[in-house]
Design brief:
This protein is an alpha+beta fold. It has 2 domains: about 80 residues, Alpha-Beta Plaits, CATH 3.30.70; about 100 residues, Alpha-Beta Plaits. The protein is built from 6 helices and 8 strands; from the N terminus they run E-H-E-E-H-E-H-E-H-E-E-H-E-H. A 4-stranded antiparallel sheet has the order 2-3-1-4, sandwiched between helices. A 4-stranded antiparallel sheet has the order 6-7-5-8. Helix 3 packs across helix 6. The termini are close together.
Length: about 180
Amino acid sequence: MQLIALLRGVTPVGKNKIPKMSYLVEILEEAGFQQVRTYIQSGNIILETELSVEETRAKIHQTIKEKIGADLSIIIKEKVDFKAAIKEKPFDDSFDYSRIHLVFTNDEIPQDRLNVVMNTDFFNEIFRKGNHCLYMYLPRDASKKKLNTNFLEKQLNITATMRKINVVQHLYDIADKK
């Protein structure tokens, strides 16, 4: 099964630093994953495994913690989830494509908490719920962005990670080339 793993909380320095993506590929292959590929330093992994999604998440977390020391949350999605998320984006061509962000989680989102966020005025920032992810439109001219992963995690009581839509598209394209 081909999966896409998104690491939450990778930092350029400090305890959650991933030294090199090539090293990450090496340790994940040593852990038994196949066809491991990464994209950019922020922790995007495409791999193949016979393990379940939950077993994959646990094994990636354990491997990174033991070999690198980083204690990162791991969001796991299938390639089809990315394809559907890109297709259902709620923003048309009048929006700046580079300002569209997708938020992924493995957690169930409590409807009552989601309703509160959905009914919040974010001024010129836009928040939408999709079937495979949450969507945010964050224009450049927003003076102080309120919408971000930390805000959503706190409000929705979830663990999540955000990627720009062009990164999600590129990860899908890499996964689709197999």
